[in-house]
Amino acid sequence: MSKIRPSDLDDRLSRDDVFVLDVRPAESYRERHIDGSYNAPVYHDLRQGDTGALDAHLDQVPSDAEVVTVCKAGVVARKATDHLREQDYDATTLSGGFKGWRHYEDETVLYRVLSLLRRVTG
User: How many domains does the chain have?
Assistant: First the structure.
């Protein structure tokens, strides 16, 4: 499974070569989201194994860019990533989901400690 860390995604967003697909419910997306992301509110469908709900949004997903899927913590987004890969998209999951992004963006102590541990352990 291909994953991308929040800091790496942030770098990629500045180069504009990635499409962020947020599958969280619309109300969660409205509260806070990654700037420039697209919301396909199919979280509950994907949790129940209904990947077909995502198909209704594929006309908004570019086929020539890497797609980074985002959900609450990364688990449901993996289902979206797998489905997109089956449809021949270059898809990756945001490590830690939006929760991880929020820790990165807010520069929380937890995120800094986990980042340090990842660097030390390789």
Answer: 1
Task: Give the per-residue pLDDT at 1.
Answer: 55
* 23-61 pLDDT tens trace: 999 999 999 999 999 999 999 999 999 999 999 999 999
Residue 35 buriedness (CB in 10 A; 0-12 / 13-18 / 19+) = exposed
Question: 22 and 70 in contact (C-beta within 8 Å)?
Answer: yes
Angstrom distances, CA of residue 29 to CA of 13, 36, 85, 89, 103: 18, 12, 24, 23, 16
Picking from 43, 109, 50, 116, the residue whose alpha carbon sits closest to that of residue 83 is 50
Whether the model clears a pTM of 0.90, i.e. scores above it, the answer is no
What CATH number should be reported for the domain holding residue 11?
Answer: 3.40.250.10
Length of the chain: 122
